[in-house]
Design a protein that fits this description.
seven-stranded parallel β-sheet, two-stranded parallel sheet
Amino acid sequence: MKTIPSSHVVLGGAGFIGHHLARRLSGLFKEVVVFDKDRTNLDLYRETEWGKRILWHAHDIAHGLDCYQIRENDVVWALAADMGGMGYIGRPENDFNVATENVLINAITARQAQVSEAAGVFYASSACVYNETKQMTTVIRPLAEEDAYPAQPDTIYGWEKLYSEQVYSALGRTGIPTRIARFHNVFGPEGTWRGGREKAPAAMCRKVAEAKFSNQHVIEVWGDGHQRRSFLYIEDALDGIMELMLYSDLEVPVNIGSPVDISINELVEMVANIANWEIEIEHIEGPLGVRGRNADITLAREALSWAPMTSLRDGMALTYAWIEQQVLTALREER
């Protein structure tokens, strides 16, 4: 964008990535508006020092944006989604809600951005869009952007994300600057860490911390633990999407992820080492997703001059410290 507007609207701004983004934007721009249906988090962030610089709306975007009309000078960050880790999106009983809620959210957002001639729209897509037949083994070939087609995602969440990419690409063809990032497992402090929607890094941190505080040494892991993933620290993710949305002319989807993959068993070992606690793994049945996935970030390096700067261990150390404190607080409240 040649001239960066001072007004930014973050949809899903009380979620994990959304609130980190809103906090960063609030330190850079004059006006930041947040929408989210999570009233608990919204009320929590509203009272922070940075949150007091933001206009917060408790609103379910799937029911429309009638309480706020996107304006011509607004940059819209479309991060709102019904989502979670494999414990949520990997379970068929959640498919209908995932599909319908997210399609509604993104259709409404794109339509209002188009009608109001918004200054630009960022869409948070996912590595879940990629063809599952290219992710069947733990011997990984990094996924490049073109690997999304022919389309065959492994979950309804991936299908919805792929369809929504098409919606926002069509919006771009109407003249609204549109940017699409495919996130690969973003993690960090202040994210969901329990309840079924947490992703692997947070889940492993929670399980190790709970074992440590209860003087136990066994935690459960779904499958054989050899499935491989790459994980991207939140601050690196924000650097990438800020570069993409505000400073680039890249009109095609781009991977925002790490090219370094790790098995789930190895991730547990890393967390246990950070916690200074011996852990044994009990492998059980559970949703697994694809066998292996990481990101080819060639396009991001070339078009955005971006690559992750935080090592997985450093990011996990920061994440574990935060989750350990949440677990300790929860245990004290239970007593």
